[in-house]
Design a protein that fits this description.
By secondary structure, this protein is an all-alpha fold. The protein has helices spanning 17-37, 44-51, 55-62, 65-86, 97-123, 133-146, 153-162, 166-175, 180-195. The chain has two domains: 7-62, Orthogonal Bundle (Arc Repressor Mutant, subunit A), CATH 1.10.10; 73-201. The chain contains nine helices and no strands. The two termini are 29 Å apart.
Length: 201
C-alpha cells in the first residue's frame, strides 16, 4: 500500500536546519490562525506574516493552502495508515475483509469528524494533492477484491470514497443533525450492498 501523499517525505528527514525551522514555524502559525479564525478565513499571506517567512518559502514548501492543510493533518492520518498496515484486527491484518472494511470506514469517519472543516477548505483549492484518498482508494480496492466483490470494484471504491467527502460530512453532521454513529452505520450499509452485488455486466 502506498504511503499517504501527506506523509513526511524521506528528504524532509535530512533537510537543512533552517528549512526545518521554517516548516515548524509555518505549521505552528497555521494551526494557531486556523483554530482562532477558521481555516476558510485565513490566507497563505497571513500565515506567512505570522510565521515570519516569505511567500516564496510558503509556496515552495506547501504549494497552496490545500498542501498546507494536508501537512497539518498529516500526523493523524499517518498513525491511521500505520494501524491499517500493521495494527491489531479488525482495522489491521488478521480479520476478514468485511470486518476490516467496516473498521476502516468507521475509523475514517471518526477522523473526518474532527478534520472535516480543514479538509473542506483544502478540497476547495485548486491542487494536485488528493490528501489521504490516494492510499485509501488502494486499501478499499484490495479489500473489496479479497472479499470477493463481483461487481464493478472501481466504481464501488469511488462511491465509498464519496462518503468521506468533508462537505457532505459537515452537512450531515451539522446541518442535518445526524449522529456520527448514523453516518458510520450508513457507510457500512452501503459497503454491504456492494459486497452482495451481482457480477458486473
Amino acid at each position: 500500500m502506498q504511503d499517504l501523499p501527506i506523509a513526511e517525505r524521506p528528504a524532509e528527514l535530512t533537510e537543512r536546519a533552517d528549512a526545518a525551522d521554517n516548516r515548524r514555524r509555518i505549521l505552528a502559525a497555521a494551526s494557531e490562525l486556523f483554530a482562532r479564525c477558521g481555516a476558510e478565513h485565513v490566507s497563505m499571506q497571513e500565515v506567512a506574516r505570522a510565521a515570519g517567512v516569505g511567500m516564496g518559502t510558503m509556496y515552495r514548501r506547501f504549494g497552496d493552502r490545500a498542501g498546507l492543510t494536508f501537512a497539518l493533518l498529516g500526523a493523524r492520518h499517518q498513525a491511521f495508515q500505520e494501524q491499517l498496515l500493521r495494527g491489531q484486527p479488525p482495522l489491521g491484518p488478521g480479520a476478514s475483509p468485511r470486518e476490516r472494511l467496516h473498521a476502516f470506514g468507521r475509523g475514517c469517519l471518526e477522523l473526518l469528524d474532527d478534520d472535516a472543516p480543514l479538509l473542506a477548505v483544502a478540497s476547495s483549492q485548486p491542487s494536485s494533492l488528493e490528501g489521504p484518498n490516494v492510499a485509501y482508494r488502494m486499501h478499499l480496492s484490495v479489500l473489496l477484491r479479497e472479499a470477493g466483490v463481483r461487481g464493478d470494484v472501481e466504481y464501488a471504491v469511488e462511491t465509498l470514497l464519496m462518503g468521506f467527502d468533508p462537505r457532505l460530512h459537515l452537512h450531515l453532521r451539522h446541518e442535518r443533525g445526524w449522529s456520527l454513529a448514523r453516518v458510520q452505520d450508513g457507510w457500512c450499509a452501503l459497503l454491504d450492498g456492494w459486497l452482495a452485488a451481482p457480477p458486473a455486466r
